[in-house]
Every structure is written in C-alpha cells, then in structure tokens.
C-alpha cells in the first residue's frame, strides 16, 4: 500500500519527465532531419530509425537508472568520477543546448510564418516570449509538464493524420528497415544526437530529481519511464518517416527551403500545410522550454546562486538564443546541423555515467546490471567512432 501511494504521488512527475524528454527530442530539427534523410535514402531510412531507437533506449535506461540511484545530476556524477569532468561536460552541454535552442527558435518562427505569414524575425521573438513566460510562474514544474504534454499529444495526432493521407508504401518500409539498400552513418549520428544527445540525455533524469524522485525504490519506475519516453519519440519518427516516404514515392516536389512543410502540404493540401505550422510551432516552443530548463540545470554545479536565480537564468538563456537566431537566420540549415553537433557530446557524457555506476561515492550500494553496462559501453564505442568519422568526413576531407 505504501509503495502504491508513493507511485500515485509521483505519477504526474513521471509523466512530466517522460514527455519532457520525448517531446523535447521531437523538436523542429527532428521534423527537418526526418524529411531530409528520407528524401536522401528512401525506405532504407527505416533501418536508421530502428537502429537509433535501440541505441536511444540503451542510453536512457543507463542514464535514468544511475541518476535516480545516486540522486546526483549528470555533472555531479562526472565531477565525482574525475574532478573537473562534470564542469567540462556542463560547458559542452550548455553550448550544445544554445545551438539546439537557436534551432528550436528557428522552428517556432517557421511555424508562425506558415500559419499567419509572420516574418521570421517577428515569429522568433513572439515564440521566445511565449516560452519564457512559463518561467515567470512559481509552479514552474507543473505548468511546464502540462504545456509540454498537451502540445506533444496534439503533435503526434496531427502527424498520424498526415502520414495516413500520404499513403506510404508500408510493406517496402518494413522490409528496408531490416534489409536496407544503404546505411547512412551521418543520418544515424544526427538522429541519435537529435533524440538523446547533449542536454536531452539528462532532461528526464534531472526532471525526476527536481520532483524529489531518487533512491533505489524508484529505479524500476524510472526504467519504465525512460523506455516509454523513447518509444514516444520512436512512434513520432516512424509516422513522420512514413509520411515523407509516401510523398516522395508519389513524386511530389520537396522544397529544399522547407522540406518538412512540403511533406504536409503534398499529403493533405493547404490544410496539411497549416497543420505543419501547428506541429513545428509547438515542436519549437516546447523544445525551447525543455532545452533551456535542462541546459541551465547543468550550471547548478558552478554556483549555488544558480538555484536562487534559476528562473531568471532560464529566461536569459531563451532571450540569448532568440537574439542569436534573429541575427543568424538560415533556419533549415541550423535545424539539421545542431543534431550532428549534439551527437559528439553523447559518448563522453554516457561514459562518465557508466563509470559512476561503479563508484560507491556515486551510487552507494546500487548494483548496475552487467548487461546494461556492456551495451552502454558498446554505444559509447560505436558513437565515439562514428562521431570521429563524421567529423573527419565533414570538416577535414
């Protein structure tokens, strides 16, 4: 009975953490990347989605379990494992979060442009104001959870409608998901970086800690929650992939200036185009909120003052991201690139968490399952190798 009461007490917090991680991952970059890579690799992109889904689950169950078991944030675990490592990871994640948030603002501004013809700069400023307004309230956690969850559900339902309207070759997609004609390494790195890379790796785990969920008794539910969050992102990725594949197979034109919008418009006409506006605006705005919340949580290790001014720092983070985007522009290019950037952070962050799982100063008496450690190490090795290979191919050759 006691455990049941505990579960009920934290039910909303678990759901909030699930949706914060999942819906933050399903940002505007997620929409653009899926369309761009489906256009490039066709039905074989299904294999990349399947592979990234498996890797995402392995990453998140390792991270969520160890964070909840230790009651420590990612950067605190890093500093315990190796003095200064947590600070280094924090700097990388905050920098990556800024890049990601610039992309999120870009997506939100595109959404308002589609819906109302709002100029990109004005759309960015308006969306930034809406996002930061949530952090002006005292009950930040509950308001954020409700906002992110509600818009996340709407987004998935609209995407399902468009996927059905696109009439994709489902049979071919299923076959190529297991027997692809080609495997695009850059696409895999970008997808993983966009769904569990950088700050997203820790968004759900840190949200649980803020809700007071920590200790061995919470580990089973934390594990289930981590898997649930990844499955939500997987459903959305598959739905978007099928929609894009249907449009491409039927020979519709994909506008390189706004590829995801082309998919929605080709599948459902002008109504689809407006639905895209709703989807990408909500994706951008909710991701701005989740990105700012989690990125700033990494600054807590630098000074106790961060806790005191947490909301104000988050607001400043959002304002800075908005200003940079208004100055830089090029929303579609920004959205695709940021996922690749965050893919480089994942191997180091996950490695520090796995080492922490065997440090009693971090986890106490908690025993991390061997199979999770082994698969986690494999993910670190694979992602590390692919990140280096991608960097060499993209920038040195």
UniProtKB/TrEMBL annotation:
UniProt xrefs under InterPro entries = NRAMP_fam
Q: How does it sit in the membrane?
A: Multi-pass membrane protein
Q: Where is it mostly found?
A: membrane
Residues that span the membrane, as ranges = 12-31, 43-64, 85-108, 114-135, 147-166, 186-209, 230-253, 273-297, 309-328, 334-358, 370-392
Q: Where in the cell is it found?
A: Membrane
User: Which Pfam family, an example, fits this chain?
Assistant: Nramp
Q: Which UniProt keywords apply?
A: Membrane, Transmembrane, Transmembrane helix
* The protein, known as: Divalent metal cation transporter MntH
Originating organism: Sporomusa silvacetica DSM 10669
């Amino acid at each position: 009975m006691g455990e049941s009461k505990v579960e009920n007490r934290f039910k909303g917090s678990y759901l909030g953490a699930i949706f914060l991680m999942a819906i933050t991952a399903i940002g505007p970059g997620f929409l653009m990347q899926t369309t761009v890579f489906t256009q490039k690799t066709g039905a074989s992109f299904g294999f990349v989605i399947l592979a990234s889904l498996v890797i995402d689950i392995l990453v998140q169950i390792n991270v969520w379990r160890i964070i909840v078991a230790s009651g420590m944030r990612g950067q605190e675990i890093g500093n315990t494992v190796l003095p200064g490592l947590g600070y280094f990871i924090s700097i990388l994640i905050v920098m990556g979060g800024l890049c990601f948030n610039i992309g999120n603002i870009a997506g939100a501004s595109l959404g308002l442009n589609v819906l109302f013809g709002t100029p990109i700069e004005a759309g960015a400023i308006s969306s930034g104001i809406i996002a930061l307004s949530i952090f002006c309230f005292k009950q930040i956690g509950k308001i954020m959870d409700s906002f992110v969850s509600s818009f996340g559900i709407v987004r998935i339902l609209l995407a399902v409608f468009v996927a059905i309207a696109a009439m994709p070759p489902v049979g071919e997609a299923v076959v190529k998901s297991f027997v692809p004609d080609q495997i695009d390494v850059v696409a895999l790195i970008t997808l993983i970086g966009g769904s569990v890379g950088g700050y997203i790796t820790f968004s759900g785990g840190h949200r649980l800690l803020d809700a007071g969920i920590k200790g061995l008794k919470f580990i089973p539910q934390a594990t289930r929650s981590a898997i649930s969050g990844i499955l939500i992102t997987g459903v959305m990725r598959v739905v978007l992939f099928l929609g894009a594949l249907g449009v491409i197979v039927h020979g519709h034109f994909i506008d390189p200036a706004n590829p995801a919008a082309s998919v929605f418009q080709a599948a459902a006409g002008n109504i689809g185009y407006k639905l895209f506006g709703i989807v990408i605006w909500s994706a951008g705005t909710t991701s701005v909120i989740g990105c700012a919340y989690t990125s700033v949580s990494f600054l807590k290790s630098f000074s106790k003052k961060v806790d005191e001014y947490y909301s104000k720092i988050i607001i400043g983070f959002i304002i800075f991201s908005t200003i940079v985007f208004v100055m830089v522009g090029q929303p579609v290019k920004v959205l695709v690139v940021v996922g690749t950037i965050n893919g480089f952070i994942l191997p180091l962050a996950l490695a520090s968490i796995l080492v922490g799982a065997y440090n009693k100063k971090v986890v106490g008496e908690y025993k991390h399952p061997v199979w999770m450690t082994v698969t986690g190490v494999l993910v670190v090795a694979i992602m590390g190798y692919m990140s280096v290979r991608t960097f060499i191919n993209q920038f040195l050759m």
